[in-house]
Write a structure and sequence with these properties.
By secondary structure, the protein is an alpha+beta fold. Helices cover 32% and strands 28% of the residues. It contains seven helices and nine strands; from the N terminus they run E-E-H-E-E-E-H-E-H-H-H-E-E-H-E-H. Helix 3 crosses helix 5 (145-155). The radius of gyration is 18 Å and the shape is globular.
């Protein structure tokens, strides 16, 4: 079942956690490398059409159009449905066209492998390593689920943001050194994982997003960070 907020607005992002699949568990494990106190909460992204009756998602068989009922009827998936505040119906309609244009594109298995390897390097170094994902050829039509979300929203003018490491000069006496600093910057589609979109909506810029639906509330992770659980409940009560 889906628990909807009293006022739904124009939601366009669905973030999903498969509670049973081992592949999904691995995706959450290897996309947890940005210093979060606890692990990644979601492993899949789907774009929700402006009339809320259909979704577009990148699956192993390619980019497909389906219905939200797929997750509404599931007994193994938990998730949240997100409204991007300031994302007008006109912009949502533009994003609809972009999402539908991607239907039939192949799934980017190579990109998943790069996500896992960068995740391994990130765990070893203790920070988000954006290395192999950066080495993608331009014009590649294949994509993973989160790349689909970033690309579709970018067409309509919405940019997801993520943490980026930059190096700034720091003068101490006569010595000069570079200090690593994390800033918020536009999230490249090649870098994106479902966890990145979750982070933007619930940690980096929560004031710009509102939770308007929760898929299968009974399957909500029992160890979900209290402040995030409180935001979900507060937004759904609105």
């Amino acid at each position: 079942m889906i628990r909807w907020a009293r006022t739904v607005g124009h939601p366009s992002s669905v973030l999903i956690r498969d509670t049973k699949s081992r592949i999904s568990q691995q995706i959450r494990l290897w996309s947890w490398y940005r210093g979060e106190q606890q692990g990644s909460w979601v492993n899949h992204y789907a774009y929700l059409g402006s009339d809320r009756s259909w979704i577009v998602e990148a699956l192993f068989g390619g980019v497909e159009q389906g219905t939200l009922a797929k997750y509404d009827d599931s007994n193994v998936c938990w998730g949240i449905i997100i409204e991007h505040l300031g994302f007008s119906l006109r912009e949502h309609t533009i994003a609809d066209g972009a999402a539908l244009a991607f239907v039939g594109k192949p799934y980017n298995v190579v990109s998943i492998a790069k996500q896992f390897l960068d995740g391994l390097f990130s765990k070893l170094l203790g920070r988000d390593v954006y290395l192999l994902r950066r080495l993608s050829l331009p014009g590649v039509a294949a994509m993973i689920c989160s790349q689909l979300g970033v690309k579709v929203h970018r067409v309509a003018g919405w940019k997801f943001m993520g943490l980026k490491t930059v190096y700034r000069k720091e003068q101490k006496g006569i010595s000069l050194r570079l200090r690593a600093v994390q800033i918020l910057a536009e999230l490249p589609d090649r870098r994106a994982a479902p966890d990145c979109i979750w982070d933007d909506a619930l940690e980096h810029r929560p004031s710009l997003y509102r939770i308007v639906g929760e898929i299968n509330p009974d399957l909500r992770p029992p160890d979900l960070i209290p402040v995030i659980a409180a935001k979900i409940d507060k937004d759904l009560a609105w």
